[in-house]
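MOLECULE: protein
FOLLOWS: sequence and fold
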Amino acid sequence: MTVTVLAAVIAAAVGHPAWLVVLVALTVVAGQLSIGLANDWIDADRDRSVGRSDKPVAQGLIAVGTVRTAAFVAAGVAVVLSVFLGPVAAVAHLVLVAAGWAYDAGLKRTVWSVVPFVVAFGLLPVVAVSAGPDGDWPAWWAIATGAVFGVAIHCTNVLPDLVDDAATGVRGFPHRLGLRGAGVTAFGALVVAALLVLGGQVSGTDPVRGVGVALAALGTVVVVVLAAAGVRLVVRGLASRTLFRLVIASSLVLVVELGLAGARLVG
């Protein structure tokens, strides 16, 4: 959901017509659905072995074959919808989805597990900004913000599952850092993302002024405060869903800031 909202906000912020914003959102939803379903299908045995109660496939409520078919159908829909975004956005989205599938297929178990997140989130602004006949390229700082944000999401997502993952042989990038290392990396990445957004808004040929500067600075301060709270929990060794909520809260602040950036998101 965070990915779709972010894509839609960016698409709307740069002035795309409503129909194109909706198309961007639907395309991203289809891609993310395919990635999520592929993950449930590929990880069915692993999830079953650790008793994942939040996974219907692991509980036997849905057949693995059904989920596998649904994953490919969703991927097919994502491919078709991508074509209507225009060549630049289409290629970017297909690479984004491929990165997600590569993670599901095995990269999650390696030190390179962070790469699909960097690629996918880094390309998200390209999908949203470049959609349409003009194919405008996003500002460099928007791409950098997405890539850094991907690091934060990846590190935070695995924190509650470190024990289960270790038991089933998953040794991705965050797992090798450990609880504290991954947590500090996640919140540090959020701060970097906030600083990139702030820098992107106050620099360039059309920087924000007056109230815009105050709002941009306020957003950055809020993210820094939330990150500090998260680091405090991590240092104390508390891997709870509270960490994920802090990341979501920080993400929402960043989404608002990106929305306020408007046309500055275009390179």
In short: Residues 173-202 form the longest helix (30 residues).
